[in-house]
Design goal:
The protein has about 70 residues and is mainly α. Helices cover about 85% and strands about 0% of the residues. It has one domain. Helix 1 packs antiparallel against helix 2. The mean pLDDT is about 85.
Length: about 70
């Protein structure tokens, strides 16, 4: 379990580094790839995360609702 937390932290740090690098490049250089990466990281990824979270929550509620086992 602890190893999973370290990997998760590493992924979060990696995403933050990519985001900050693209922001810095976008502001100083104005290159198109930096704008695209910045928009994907700050607009698309949160939307995808929310949609996946909602899907998993609805799936769990549906599974618990259709189950014959009472908790």
């Amino acid at each position: 379990m602890k190893r999973l937390r370290v990997k998760t932290l590493m992924v979060v740090v990696l995403f933050a580094a990519i985001d900050l690098a693209s922001y810095h490049t976008m502001i100083t250089d104005g290159s198109a790839w930096a704008v695209v990466v910045f928009l994907v990281m700050n607009v698309m990824m949160p939307m995808v995360a929310v949609m996946v979270g909602l899907f998993l929550a609805i799936r769990r509620i549906w599974r618990d609702h259709t189950s014959t086992t009472l908790y």
